[in-house]
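Hi both,

Apologies for the delay on this - the queue was longer than expected. I finally got the coenzyme A-bound model through. Below you'll find the protein sequence and the ligand SMILES exactly as submitted, and right after that the C-alpha cells for the full complex including the ligand.
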Amino acid sequence: MTHIIRTATADDAGRLAELAVVTFPLACPPGSTAEDIAAHLASTLSEANFRTYLADPDVTVLAIDAHGELRGYSLLVARPAGDPEVAAVLTKLPCTELSKCYVHPDHHGLGAAAELMHASISTAAAAGARGLWLGVNSQNSRAIRFYEKSGFRTVGTKSFKLGNTVEHDFVMERAVTP
Ligand SMILES: CC(C)(COP(=O)(O)OP(=O)(O)OC[C@H]1O[C@@H](n2cnc3c(N)ncnc32)[C@H](O)[C@@H]1OP(=O)(O)O)[C@@H](O)C(=O)NCCC(=O)NCCS
C-alpha cells in the first residue's frame, strides 16, 4: 500500500488514539489483563493524551499515512531521561527517547516499521540528538528483534507500570548522526 510518513498534527489526535487501541495490546506481555490494558489506554493513549503530546514542543509524533488512514506512529521526546534507571545507562548524549513505535498489524513484516524507524532516527538527528533510546517489554521478542535490526543494543533495564502490574523493560540505545 502506498503511504507517506509525516509529522502528526492536533487534527490527528483522534485517529492516533484509535490506532493505539489496536496496536498497544500487541506490545503487552501475554499475562496482561484486559483491565490493565484498558487503564493504560485511558491514562496514556487517549485522544486527550495525544492532544497534549502534540502540543508539547519537545515531542514529535510521526505518522504513517495511507490515503488519510493512520497505519503506524512513533513518538519522540527530546529531553533528558527523567527515570534515574535510564539516565544511569545512556551513553550517547543528548539522547532522544523513542517513547512509542507502533505499526498496524496489517503492515507488519512489510517494511513500514523500518521506514518509520528511519524517519524517527532522522528526526532525532536533525534536532541535535546523538543517541536514541527506548524501553521495550522483555517478553516482546518481535519488537526486540526489530530494534536490534534497527541498530539498537540493550544497555539496561527499567520498570514499567501497566495498570496495577509492574513490568520489566529492556532499555535499548543506538547512536544517531546528523
Ligand atoms: C515492533 C514493530 C513496530 C516491528 O514492525 P514489524 O513490521 O513487525 O518488524 P519486522 O517484521 O521488520 O521485524 C520483526 C522481526 O521479528 C521477527 N519476529 C516475528 N515474530 C517474532 C517472535 N515471536 N519472536 C522473535 N522474533 C520474531 C521477524 O521475523 C523479524 O525478524 P527478521 O527480519 O530477522 O525475520 C511491530 O511489530 C509492532 O508494531 N508491534 C506491536 C507494537 C509493539 O510491540 N511496539 C513496540 C513497543 S516497544
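Main takeaway for now: The chain has a mean pLDDT of 95.

I'll put the files on the shared drive as well.

H.
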